[in-house]
Write a structure and sequence with these properties.
By secondary structure, this protein is an alpha/beta fold. About 35% of the residues lie in helices and about 15% in strands. The protein contains five helices and four strands, in the order αβαβαβαβα. It has a four-stranded parallel beta sheet with strand order 1-2-3-4.
Length: about 130
Amino acid sequence: MQILDVLRAVEWAATEERLGPAISIYGKGDMAAVSLYAALFDERVKQIILNDVPASHWQRPALLNVLRITDLREVAAALAPRRLTSLTRFPDTFEFTRDIYRLHRAPHQFAQSPSLPEALEVWKYPVSSAK
């Protein structure tokens, strides 16, 4: 249900608010994993920003039967070459993900950033005045 909630928020942002074709999702802890899955299902999400992403579903979050098919490192790798940024150190298990980004010739898209504003590169976007 949480993944569906994020997907509905992306739909709202894209259609009602007309935020453009490049949407970023931020997730911390368990929601970092939820953010990965939501981005996997909607290509309008161009950047995923993670904070304290779990190394595996063996840690958290529990999703029914997901480990029969995949784990977080594979879900993150499936997002290549979209931008994947972490505000904390990526878990060692994500070396697989880094390798997939290299195969896509997009190692620069798999990055670590010291802060959310830097990950979003907020200085690139003009501030609009409210009317």
